[in-house]
Amino acid sequence: MKKERRTYTAEFKLQMVKLYENGKSRADIAREYDITPSALDRWISNHQKTGSFTAEDNRSAEENELMQLRKENQRLKMEVDILKQAALIMGRK
């Protein structure tokens, strides 16, 4: 049986991080609030690095550049496909 993916608010995440910072163990927090230890670890790590829980704020410069290059690559592939189709159409006339 598959578990449904849960989402948590930034306020809840911050509250869990504060509990950890005030001395409560990660295992106790995860068990008490029924969250996965890996999620809690990620929240703590993200909060310590950037103070934010959003993925955009926690990406490195290399990750941002890679995403931008992938978008540009996809756009260029689409342009090439359009030009190929146009060449085929013009070649028929």
Please give a structural write-up.
By secondary structure, this protein is mainly alpha-helical. The chain has two domains: 1-58, Winged helix-like DNA-binding domain superfamily/Winged helix DNA-binding domain (Arc Repressor Mutant, subunit A, Orthogonal Bundle), CATH 1.10.10; 60-93. 70% of the residues lie in helices and 0% in strands. It is built from four helices and no strands. The chain has helices spanning 10-21, 26-33, 37-49, 61-92. Helix 1 (10-21) packs across helix 3 (37-49). It is elongated, with a radius of gyration of 23 Å. The model has no long low-confidence stretch (mean pLDDT 88).
CATH architecture label name of the largest domain: Orthogonal Bundle
The proportion of residues in beta strands is under 5%
Main sheet characteristics: none
CA radius of gyration is 23 Å
What structural class should be given to the helix and strand makeup? mainly alpha
Poorly predicted ranges: none
Oligomer: single chain
Secondary structure tally: strands: 0
Look at the structure and give the mean pLDDT: 88
Question: How many DSSP H or I helices?
Answer: 4
What name does the CATH topology of the largest domain carry? Arc Repressor Mutant, subunit A
Summarize the amount of helix as a percent range.
Answer: 55-70%
Principal-axis shape equals: elongated
The end-to-end span amounts to 59 Å
CATH superfamily of the largest domain: Winged helix-like DNA-binding domain superfamily/Winged helix DNA-binding domain
* H/E element order: HHHH
Total domains = 2
CATH domain class of the largest domain: Mainly Alpha
